[in-house]
Fold this sequence. Notes:
Elements: E1 4-10, H1 18-30, E2 36-42, H2 54-57, E3 61-62, E4 68-69, H3 72-80, E5 89-91, H4 92-104, H5 115-132, E6 138-143, H6 153-166, E7 171-178, E8 181-182, E9 187-188, H7 191-202, E10 209-214, H8 220-230, E11 237-241, H9 249-255, H10 258-266, H11 277-287, E12 291-299, H12 309-321, E13 324-332, H13 341-345, E14 350-353, H14 362-374, E15 379-382, H15 384-396, E16 403-405, E17 414-419, H16 421-424, E18 434-442, H17 447-452, E19 456-463, E20 465-467, H18 472-477, E21 480-485, E22 492-497, E23 503-506, H19 521-534
Helix pairs in contact: 1-3, 1-9, 4-5, 5-6, 11-12, 12-19, 14-15
Bound molecules: glutamine.
The site of glutamine has 10 residues, from strand 19.
Amino acid sequence: MAAKYIFVTGGVTSSLGKGIISASLAKLLQARGFSVTIQKFDPYINIDPGTLNPYEHGECYVTEDGAETDLDLGHYERFLNVATSQANNVTTGRIYNHVITQERQGAYLGKTVQVIPHITDEIKRRMLLLGESGEFDIIITEIGGCVGDIESLPFVEAVRQLRWELGVNETCVIHLTLVPYLKAAGELKTKPTQHSVRDLSEAGVQPDILVCRSEYPIPADLRKKIALFCNVKINSVIESLDADTIYDVPLLMRKEKLDERVIGKLKLPHRADPNLDSWKDFLGRLKNPTAEVNIALVGKYVELPDAYKSIIEAFVHAGSANECKVNIKWFQSETINEENVASLLQDKHGVLVAPGFGERGFKGKLEAIKYVRENNIPFLGICLGMQCAAVEFARNVLKLDNAASTEMDPETPHPIIDMMADQKQITQMGGTMRLGAYICELKKGSKAYSIYGKSRISERHRHRYEFNNKYLTDFENAGMMATGINPDTGLVEVIELNNHPWFVAAQYHPELKSTVLNPHPLFVKFVKAAINYTKN
Ligand code: GLN
């Protein structure tokens, strides 16, 4: 069967949750036996989100093949349990970059290069790319931004052309809108939905299905009104209520029969009713915890939880696996110092020091780590968090004065964390870190080995600096063991403390591989250690 294409657009406002709706629909279709993937087209000029400040756009999600992508790809992977790749995230910048490079190579044979057809042709080529692999029955394409924005226009135009080229039953357009409740009037309002559908129709795209975000149930007469004014069937007006957890959304969409409408529109064969047993088991455990822990998350971007999206979700997965409610307590590392660290952390059952970049808040992270190391509180360090754990140990246990990472102090006498030689040559910012999946060998008998239950693992990376192996013997003699090593390069990937109940830190990002069906072992065991700590 040739792949079918579903496009998800949004109107009225951003942040309506197109990513979650796309992932939920994909989950339902996958649970019926279809092979599905999701891709995100973002209308900004950055080639990828790798250079964006997390405050701008939340976390940068990294795929197996080392693409720095939008955080929605994290949702796709967490819901579907299938890896995405570079091809799953395309920006306006990447499209233009390709077209302009082609133009410089003379590929357009003297023609004037224009938005239509050249930019839209390139958008269409990329929209169809994953479908041509033969691997997928259904490709869901989420268009970032809002319909009606100037920058979204070429994408909507590409969708219009594709619908026409591929034929009526080959594509389906789902438009996400908002049905706001006006308190003063005591009413739900459909006008914003009507306007945004009109915008989309003016661009030549008539949506097949409307998913209406609403704080209150949308009554039948209002659904009828929306259907009438927006030219969709009444059963294709889907209500999407605010949910307790994003993981409820697939079940809510099932109740609204979103999957059935899509199958009907695309004339897909009825394979099976969706089997959501393991998903429901996950939700059951999540909603009926038998334990509760408070975990401190120490980081630099804590004002915007989206900056740590995958970490938060990995805790949700690990919480469910342990039937434990995990409360994340946020700490801006800049505010932690020697005086207040005990009062801030003494009642926590675990501390995670987060990934990050730059000097700000570095000292506070070291204080937090010193405290948990000396007080036997479970600790998980991720990327910069692992580098901080190494620096703290060097300063306070090995007594190496002013030991540091050269990222924070290029002149340090003890560069415990340093840039690798090949990184020093690099001047370009985007896509030049150590990115994507690398193999790591865990030492038998180590905590890391017992956590994973095997010695060979593969985890994703995003960093420039590395543990400096010159110091390895001193570290190990003092009880900080390197228990995960990259077998090809000898780089240290995991460190752990011998004389501590649970002190593990990784140079890689375990949070990027945690999914609903495969909660990450490091998070699962860290939460378990926190539960044990509550029993002390
Ligand atoms: N800034 C550190 C580095 O580049 C850590 C990066 C991270 O935490 N992702 O090596």
